[in-house]
Design goal:
This protein has 232 residues and is an alpha+beta fold. The chain has a single domain, classed as Cyclic Phosphodiesterase, Chain: A. It is built from seven helices and eleven strands. The strands form four sheets. It has a four-stranded antiparallel sheet. Strand 6 and strand 7 form a beta hairpin. The longest helix has 15 residues.
């Protein structure tokens, strides 16, 4: 398949379909992964810092939820084979739902989080992580060091050693990152300012019925390469 070779890493993400949420998310983060282009930040009254500073950390990924975290291709594997396997896997998987999405905090970060029982989202993510694991190269020593394994729980370290990422399987939590690290007061201010803008755009229920294969370009930013419908 043309257009998917030569990326440093690949990932399987949920990326919003074209529409109001996708447009606002691209502008908020300053990067439109679907178009592979920068986006002008919106004016959001009440923020404690410029949007560019608040969103610098997650910008390169675009608005997304990680399903299978970025990985280098294993030796002997190709992007075309990954694409074919992802298409087959997604054709076998049923969509997952949550009651909706809400703005919340994960430690010092703001994110969109699922409302209601996330079991279906969790099971879907686990199936994708396991189903495409043959394409993942083991992390290098430098990649392991950047993960700061000393900060992980024993269970998270075991998952990292097995799957190349610590927040999978029973440690997985679906989230759509909206900010970098923020202090408590700034986090509350950003959350309040964002709620009025993004709240009306959030789907209810939230239905995850498509996944995107994304690639990390030479500029370190991720782009949508292909979308797959979950049709199992």
């Amino acid at each position: 398949m043309d257009g998917i070779d030569g990326f440093a890493r690949y990932a399987l993400y949920w990326v919003p379909e074209p529409g109001a949420l996708a447009d606002f998310g691209a502008a908020w983060l300053g990067w439109d992964a679907a178009r592979g282009a920068e986006a002008a930040h919106p004016h959001v009254p009440g923020l404690p810092a410029p949007v560019a500073a608040i969103t610098a950390e997650p910008r390169k990924y675009g608005l997304h939820a990680t399903i299978k975290a970025p990985f280098r291709l294993a030796e002997g594997q190709t992007a075309a084979a990954l694409h074919a396997a992802a298409a087959d896997l997604c054709a076998s998987l049923a969509p997952a739902e949550a009651e909706g999405l809400r703005i919340g905090a994960i430690g010092p970060w703001l994110a969109l989080l699922p409302e209601g029982d996330p079991a279906g989202l969790n099971a879907l993510a686990a199936a994708v992580v396991a189903g495409l694991d043959a394409f993942r190269a083991p992390p290098t020593a430098a990649e392991t060091a950047r993960r700061r394994p000393e900060t992980l729980t024993p269970r998270q370290r075991a998952l990292f050693d097995r799957w190349g990422y610590p927040f999978v399987m029973d440690e997985f939590f679906f989230h759509i990152t909206l900010s970098g690290r923020l202090g408590e007061a700034d986090r509350a201010a950003v959350r309040s300012a964002l709620a009025a803008r993004i709240g009306p755009l959030l789907p209810r229920p939230f239905r995850l019925d498509r996944l995107a294969l994304c690639g990390e370009g030479a500029d370190g930013r991720f782009r949508v390469l292909h979308r797959y419908t979950l049709s199992g």
